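We both want to read discrete structure tokens more fluently, so let's practise on a single case. Would you write everything just below, so we can both look at the same thing?
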Amino acid sequence: MNKSITPNQIKQNNKSLIYHYIYQNPKVSQQDIAYDLRLSRPTITTNLNALEADGFIQRDGQITTESAGRKAVAYSIVSDYRVAIGVEILKQSIKIIAVNLYGQPIDHHTLSISYAAKDSYYKKVCQAIIDFQNMRKLSDSQILGVGFAMQGLISPDGETVVYGQILSCTGLTIDVFRRHLPWPCIFIHDADAAATSELWSSSALTDAFYLSLSTHLGAAMICKRSILSGRHGHNATVEHISLTSDGPRCYCGKRGCLETLCSLSALLEEDESLDDFFQNLREGEPLYKSRFTTYLTNLAKAINLLHLIYDQDFILGGHLAPYLTLEDLAFLHKKIRQMTPFAESEDFLLISNMPQHNIAIGAALSHLQTYLSALFLS
């Protein structure tokens, strides 16, 4: 038996339609909304007044039209009506970022805190988040939740680190943070967080292979605007594909993994920064050119192998992305064309749209997605 739609459900649906229209089209007039949503002016006026009174939207200037008469009032959402917090957990530091409802950074902070599997560490991280909240004058109710980007594989429910060799945190549960914070908390794999931020920034992105070129190598497979997790939760763990049995030892215990050839640990010497490396490289220092050529050649081998498996665009992200140039991409394409058995008809390598803070931002985005998709819907 079909259930009829109640008047209250119709009202809530109209409110949701109007809010999301304004969200997608900032600075719109009542006339714009009426024309595109095919709703009556009284319905729109009532909902706009209610949304404005509750703080969801705001009047945002006026819209100039070609016709004479009064200018139309423009409406926009209040982008910081709710915010989400993302935290990237690293061995020697943490990165905290707050993003508004558009996923845009409001503020960020990095602290030197060395990871330790102790409650004192988890308390210290949570206190840093609360201090960050207070510094930004964010209320408890304003914060949707906290996402923790971890260097490890995460259970589908975001509750547990199922493989965390880098931080030696296998089996860690989100409760270690949740018990010290008043908001919903989840874990997310750092590579998945980076790919999530990439999806958020590009509505045209549907299918791609994302490579996170950071201190450690990570990857995510994007299919139909979703990140594939795999049956056992370790999809796209390309960092542990072994190219040689006598190469450097990976943190997984095996030798010659892509992690040892394509992560920044393979490129940089101990205590060497990316800024220092690329300054020397761009100044033409032969040693640095040789090191980078070796790195890019190994990266080309990895990309060629993966592209044979997943024939989609490859997005190069992570900490290395801001330093890559078109010349670097051309070198990679040239090397790949020398290796592949197929003629590459067009370039398939792209540089990340948002390389800066992308992991921490991606960790926060799941809370925004949940909030926006459920807003006003009963």
About this structure: The first strand starts at residue 57 and ends at 63. The radius of gyration is 24 Å. The mean pLDDT is 91. Residues 146 and 185 are 5 Å apart (CA to CA).
